[in-house]
Automatic annotation (TrEMBL):
Localization, UniProt: Cytoplasm
Active site residues according to the UniProt entry: D76
Keywords recorded for this protein, A-Z: Cytoplasm, Hydrolase, Nucleotide metabolism
Superkingdom of this protein's organism: Bacteria
EC code(s) of this entry: 3.6.1.9
Role this protein plays: Nucleoside triphosphate pyrophosphatase. May have a dual role in cell division arrest and in preventing the incorporation of modified nucleotides into cellular nucleic acids.
Highest classification ranks of the organism: Bacteria, Pseudomonadati, Pseudomonadota, Alphaproteobacteria, Hyphomicrobiales
TM stretches of this protein: none
Predominant subcellular localization, coarse grouping: cytoplasm
InterPro entries xrefs: ITPase-like_fam, Maf-like
Name the record gives this protein: Nucleoside triphosphate pyrophosphatase
Length: 199
């Protein structure tokens, strides 16, 4: 009997990546308290990459408890500028503040992925993309906020690269899949090793 694969995420972007890669899987959102899980990490170990991995594993384990025989894909992404971790804006003022802070600087998108079965981590990986924003004007920022409105609250950096958010950037160092929050190439390679991905 084939091993079933479950994506522990409600993200439409992550589902689309797996669909496009031709994988057969189910998707189930994990309900975890992300802020509490962050606080549970010892402060000395609370780096942007370790937080992303901690959350990815916690989400996968939550689904694995309900489906112990399945292999569960857990994933999470953090955004950091130096040691500062960002969370999603909830209003225009918050989005404006985030973009003003990121303007002219390079921030990191830290994307973690893991495979869990029977509640145990089988494999894990973190990829990082370096995103340098250009020195855009205050006038551009205001018009960008006006045009994009509440959809900016759906991503931690207040941008979608597939849309007008690309206008904010000067350079990007990292692959598209990492930016979308699922390091797809290493995941596909591991699934091939496990005999789940037959490509």
């Amino acid at each position: 009997m084939a091993t079933s694969l479950i994506l522990a995420s409600a993200s439409s972007a992550r589902r689309q990546l797996l669909n496009n890669a031709g994988l057969s899987y189910d998707a189930e959102a994990a309900s975890v308290d992300e802020r509490q899980l962050e606080q549970d990490i010892p402060e000395a170990d609370r780096t942007p990459t370790s937080i992303a991995m901690h959350l990815a594993i916690a989400k996968a384990r939550a689904i694995s408890l309900r489906h112990p025989l399945s292999i569960v894909i857990g994933c999470d992404q953090t955004m950091s500028l130096g040691s500062t971790l960002f969370h999603k804006a909830t209003d225009r003022a918050g989005a404006k503040s985030t973009l003003q802070t990121l303007r002219g600087k390079a921030h990191h998108l830290n994307s973690a992925v893991c495979l869990v079965r029977h509640g145990e981590v089988m494999w894990s990986h973190v990829s990082v993309a370096i995103m340098r924003m250009r020195e855009f004007s205050d006038a551009f920022l205001e018009s960008y906020l006006d045009r994009n409105g509440e959809k900016l609250f759906g991503s931690v950096g207040c941008y979608q690269l597939e849309g007008e958010g690309i206008q904010l950037f000067e350079t990007i160092d990292g692959d598209y899949f990492t930016i979308l929050g699922l390091p797809l190439l290493p995941l596909l390679e591991e699934l091939r090793k496990l005999g789940i991905n037959h490509a």
